[in-house]
Specification:
- The protein has eleven helices and ten strands.
- A five-stranded mixed sheet has the order 4-3-5-10-6, with helices on both faces. Strands 7-9-8 form a three-stranded mixed sheet, with helices on both faces.
- α1 crosses α4 and α2 packs across α3.
- Belongs to the LysR transcriptional regulatory family.
- It comes from Alloalcanivorax balearicus MACL04.
Length: 297
């Protein structure tokens, strides 16, 4: 379809409806009625010859065709909006929105941000932190740095940094722990990934105890609880070298177990801009000195 023939209003109506899962809220965002939105989406479906939504009593559900179209439109409209905003504000920086799990942000990225900004003053890098779960489309992310095994549907995942887990606790408690079996008698602080302690004990050749101790949704909170004497946490020690160096916490045992790594991810449908490629190259270069995995080309 030629550019002059693109049904831009209908495409905007679909994108807003899909993102908000509701015709009424889409109409409010675009300052038109719910009926107008519904008609525009229906006209788009007729023009494309596909069904984009399954209409439900309490909302909308995207069809496979709708899922394929949404990230492309979100990307395009976001880039148009960013370009217009920069022109209106007299700024000519290219925006890159990076989602990043909080542990990596605090433990690795934030101390190095000034270097990136010095090297790339023409890039407006915007960070959004979370606890490893994000909707790349809804959150408007260009890239998302997350922890796991690299298998996320609909995304390209590039390895950044290995992050083996090792026990960490307050120094006074660490001095009481002489062998892994001693952990049977202390609270074991846990994350939402429930098999981590079991895998560590298996690597240590010790029968895992019945878990007891607090559960936390971020490694940063686990660290603070461990430093406060609440128990022993299993943490990616690479991310917490400052706390270890300051003596706030201590590793009672050197044994570490691999349960995943940090990855740079993006939607498969997202074409990388020049600024995105520059950020990716900076990450690759900076991570070489930290034992980082080589980024795939």
């Amino acid at each position: 379809m030629d550019v002059p023939q693109l049904p831009l209003n209908a495409l905007r109506a679909f994108e807003a409806s899909a993102r908000l899962c509701n015709f009424t809220r889409a109409g409010q965002e675009l300052n038109v009625t719910q009926t107008a939105i519904s008609h525009q989406v229906k006209a788009l479906e007729d023009q494309l010859g596909v069904t984009l939504f399954t209409r439900l009593p309490r909302g909308l559900a995207l069809t496979d065709e709708g899922h394929a179209l949404l990230p492309v439109l979100t990307d395009v409209f976001g880039r148009i909006s960013g370009a217009v905003t920069r022109l209106q504000e007299g700024r000519f920086q290219e925006v890159v929105t990076l989602g990043v799990v909080g542990t990596f942000a605090i433990g690795w990225l934030l101390p190095r941000l000034s270097d990136f900004r010095d090297r790339h003053p023409s890039i407006d890098l915007r960070l959004k932190t979370n606890n490893n779960v994000a909707d790349i489309v809804a959150d408007g992310l260009d890239y998302f740095i997350r922890f796991g095994d690299g298998a996320w549907h609909g995304t390209d995942a590039l390895p950044l940094l290995d992050a083996p887990l090792s026990p960490v606790c307050a120094p006074a408690l660490a001095d009481q722990l002489k062998q892994p079996a001693d952990l049977h008698g202390v609270p074991l602080l846990r994350s939402f990934r429930r098999d981590e302690w079991e895998r560590w004990f298996q690597a240590a050749g010790v029968v895992p105890p019945t878990p007891r101790g607090g559960m936390f949704d971020s490694s940063a909170l686990l660290l603070e609880a461990a430093a406060g004497g609440e128990g022993v946490a299993l943490l990616p020690v690479t991310m917490f070298q400052e706390a270890l160096g300051q003596g706030r916490v201590k590793q009672p045992f050197e044994l570490a177990v691999d349960t995943g790594r940090y990855w740079l991810t993006k939607l498969k449908s997202r074409e990388e801009t020049t600024a995105m490629l520059q950020l990716r190259a900076w990450l690759e270069q900076s991570l070489r000195g930290c034992g980082g995995a080589a980024l795939a080309r």
